[in-house]
Specification:
Layout: H1 3-30, H2 40-69, H3 79-109, H4 113-141
Helix pairs in contact: 1-2, 1-4, 3-4
């Protein structure tokens, strides 16, 4: 597995775990009550921050293990990696745009800040997961 693909897998796994943890924490804080009463802001910031840190740490550790096994192949990328990264970025951007449009609609409707922020968070989360899946598929099956 090449350097870039390892990072994609790391980001995918951490993103799925982070999204799941965030949803569970918000639902626990709601305790069956209204979701808009949840103090979501610190939960969201900690989830985003910790997921970034965990992704970096796991990528470094996985890279060290891979480097010990194959010192010549560590950190190398080629045109295929660049093309896969571009394709994944285009997929991600589509979902960020959809989330942005959802946020605009929610703002126009005067929705609670909870729904606006969580719609954008969900858009970023879905974007990260779907973009990573697209990259993994491209690494496994190739670009068409």
């Amino acid at each position: 597995m090449v350097y870039e693909e390892r990072n994609v897998w790391t980001g995918l796994v951490v993103s799925v775990i982070a999204i799941t943890v965030y949803v569970i924490l918000v639902l626990q804080q709601a305790g069956g009550g209204s979701l808009t009463d949840v103090d979501w802001f610190p939960l969201m910031l900690w989830t985003i921050g910790l997921s970034i840190v965990v992704t970096i740490v796991v990528s470094i550790l996985w890279g060290m293990v891979a480097g010990a096994r194959d010192p010549d192949g560590v950190g190398k990328s080629d045109i295929r990696d660049r093309d896969i990264s571009r394709m994944g970025s285009r997929v991600e951007q589509a979902f960020v745009v959809i989330a942005g449009l959802g946020v605009i609609v929610l703002c126009a409707m005067g929705a609670d800040v909870f729904w606006i922020a969580n719609t954008m968070f969900a858009g970023f989360a879905v974007s990260a997961v779907v973009g990573s899946i697209a990259r993994v598929v491209a690494y496994r099956r190739g670009l068409v």
